[in-house]
Amino acid sequence: AIYYIDKRDFEKAAFYAKDIESMKLSCCGDNRTLIWLKMHYVTYYLEIGNFDKARQTLDYIKTHKQKNVPQADITTLELRYFTFRDLTKGLRFFKAKWKVLLDEEENTPLDLLYNNIRCAAFFAKLEAARTRKTVKIEFDRTFPLYREDNSYKIADLYDFFYNNAKKLADRFDKSNETDFFNSDLQTILNEEW
Asked: What is the pLDDT of residues 24-52, one digit of tens each?
């Protein structure tokens, strides 16, 4: 079902998702497969502009997720929702959740790559939408760009997240002898919402 969602064949996806959504098919007796399926639906709904359905599905995920679904995956997806839908709420959300997104102990390197890409995309959209080019964020001293006055240029935040993503993408591409991750980085940043 996830394959067909990603290929944008919603009819086939719905057909194959029936057994997952009814919990006839599950992984290890819990709902993690259903949650992963719903996460792909959120992406699909965002891309077709059905923000209400995306929000409903996100709320379902947050209410029903199991411990074995990483919180950062859901946090990143929700930041993406706000990037599409409401940058002001997105900024409040980012301020509350930035540590989850950057936690190197809880996130795999691949998770960190996509978390940084989503943060870069968010700050690119925020900078384009706002006339004021700074934001107040109460980062703690562990944040590499930490400033006591909590005032940050949006462009600096974009650069920080982009550069982190670029380093990780370069590392993955070198290891895999491909340009897949750098290509994905550019594709996500160039998406027109």
From this structure: 555 555 567 778 788 888 888 888 889 99
Whether the CA torsion 149, 150, 156, 162 is positive or negative: it is positive
Question: Which letter does DSSP use for residue 107 in this model?
Answer: S
Which phi and psi angles does 95 have, rounded to 5°?
-60, -35
Q: Are 1 and 17 spatial neighbours (Cβ–Cβ below 8 Å)?
A: yes
Q: Which residues pair with 135 in a beta bridge?
A: 152
Would you call 145 helix, strand, or coil by DSSP?
coil
3-state class (DSSP) for residue 160: helix
Q: For the segment 115-128, what is each residue's pLDDT rounded down to a tens digit?
A: 999 999 999 999 99
Partners of 151 in the beta sheet? 136
Highest mean predicted confidence (pLDDT) among 77-81, 82-86, 90-94: 90-94
Residues 6+ apart with CB under 8 A from 44: 5, 8, 10
135: tokens are 């934001």
121's enclosing H/E stretch is helix 109-129
With beta carbons less than 8 A apart as the criterion, state whether 150 and 139 touch: yes
Mean pLDDT of 54-64: 90
The interaxial angle of helices 109-129 and 154-176, nearest 10 deg, is 150
For the beta carbon of residue 38, count every other beta carbon within 10 angstroms.
21
